[in-house]
Amino acid sequence: MMEEQWLRESCIVVNNESTYRAINQLVEGKIILLNYPCNHDLIDIGKNRIVLCFGKDAVSIRADVELKPLPKYHFINAFKEMKVENAEEMYHFTRGSIKSIIRRMSGSTNEKRPKWADKEKKDLLSPLLFLRKINRQSTMDRALVEALSGEAFEEVEKVYQDLNRMEDSPIKLTEEYYVLVNYEETWDTLQYSINGSQYDRLTNTIISLLNEIIDKKQALGIHSKNIGRSTTLHNLFSNYIYFSLDDLASPILKQTVQGFLEYCYKPNTDSIIVSHLSTLAEASPDVVCKFLWNDLKKSDGIICKAFEEKDNTDNDIYILFCLDELTHHIESAVLACKMLFIIFCMDYNYMCSNSPENSLSTALCLINTSVALSLQQKVEMIRYFLKTDPRHGIQIALKVIDGNGFAIPVRYGKRNSKTDDQITILEYCNAIEAIEEMCYQYAIAMGSADVILSIINDYHRVRPEFFKKMATSFD
Predict the structure, then answer these.
(1) Residue 186 belongs to some domain of the structure
(2) pLDDT digit string, tens, across residues 149-195
(3) Gap between the Cα atoms of 465 and 451, Å rounded
(4) Between helices 425-446 and 375-388, what is the axis angle to 10°?
(5) Do 170 and 80 reside in the same domain of the chain?
(6) How many CB atoms are closer than 10 A to CB 335?
(7) What is the rounded CA–CA span in Å between residue 216 and residue 248?
């Protein structure tokens, strides 16, 4: 077509419906090539010649049988029947894609990477990887794509359209949205490093967004207090969790997260960053934990405003979510529990299900071996609570003793590398007796008959010798 002058002058290639409708109104006597799946009516057909040139399948042949997609639980059950280890994780990383499943199963094929990985411009997938979905009609999304890729949106869209035609495409086009088919496999394939240009563009893009929000230029476009947490920012921040798996990530990532946290003290961005604290905490738990610990000491800090001044935001909810996340990391669990206890002692009226009491009862649950704290650390933490504030400490201690249920967050891949430390019945009973003995001593000192009766009613958890020992405390 490019070799013939008359074709160059008379043919117009159109890549979407809106452009087709606009072009068809402006020109006449031209050949319009529709380079996209045409599922709409054609207008003024006699005005121009329309050529449908897009197709991935033989559309003239009707399929005899149309197979319905398998639900998630069918895939997982099939994996379990095949004796595949970590069936849920296998589905999480493959999203039910047969080719992805084959690539992850060792010995099943020599093909370890999808074919699109050999494409020259595959790195232009980075905006879609970072955003997870892109509205090609949105001015905001188009600007983000250009900032994250360093290329014009039209150039990036050409690559996406090319990838979309591949049999094992990482992209699907749903109405006006480009959507990433398999987030985990795309990350594994592209192998972006924290020292790469993609990391720098991601960080600079987020900082630019936050600065624009401060200037009130894009506040409604990226975040609205009426709709809560911004999905766009959440998706952008989530990428740092994957970057944190890079062995070289620690110093650079800590500096980046620290920079984001400073926006908690700037106008218009304070509540925005607080709403994403739990995501940042998963990427860099020690940095976020130290930041909140220092903030807790400030009379005008975000924690004080959320729980003591009771500002008209959801910051209290997001801070509790963040502290709950921090209890699952070895480097932050102890300090996070202390902060939860300090907030619990504020006697705040919680309007939702998450509360310091519930988070502490899960983190300190004696039979919960999936958390960061060891059994001995849990006992010592309760000892610290009782010494710091006996009245509130006893409440937490009794709830931990009575607790036999807990919630475990789902974690896959390297984030799920912690192995559960099994505890024996003897270790469990010794821990129960140690906690009840501490509670008993403080109850005697406080003259709290209710606590003493509660411990006595819990007789089935301890040995008879325990009560003989405790009886000597009575006058």
Answers:
(1) no
(2) 999 999 999 999 988 888 778 888 888 899 988 888 888 888 888 98
(3) 19
(4) 0
(5) yes
(6) 19
(7) 36
Enumerate residues 6+ apart whose C-beta is below 8 A from 319. 274, 277, 292, 302, 303, 306, 307
Q: Are strands 171-174 and 177-180 parallel, antiparallel or unpaired?
A: antiparallel
Domain's final residue, options 179, 208, 230:
179
Give the pair of three-digit tokens for residue 116: 């699109």
Listed residue (280, 301, 282, 279) closest to 292, CA to CA: 301
Say if 194 falls within a structural domain: no
Q: What is the mean pLDDT of residues 455-472?
A: 72
Could you report the per-residue pLDDT of 226-264, keeping only the tens digit for each?
A: 334 578 899 999 999 989 887 766 889 999 999 999 999
Q: How does pLDDT run across 182-230, given as a tens digit for each residue?
A: 888 888 888 888 988 999 999 999 999 999 888 875 544 554 443 345 7
Q: Are residues 120 and 150 in the same domain?
A: yes
d(CA 387, CA 371): 24
Domain of residue 462 covers 382-408+423-475
Alpha carbon of 251 to those of 255, 287, 443: distances in Å?
6, 11, 47
Place of tokens 């563009």: 201
Better-predicted residue by pLDDT, 113 or 417: 113
Distances (CA, A) of 237 to 130, 275, 324, 410: 9, 11, 18, 19
- Pair (82, 120) in one structural domain: yes
What pTM was estimated for this model as a whole?
0.74
Q: For the chain, what percent of residues have pLDDT higher than 90?
A: 33
Which tokens sit at 72?
Answer: 């998630």
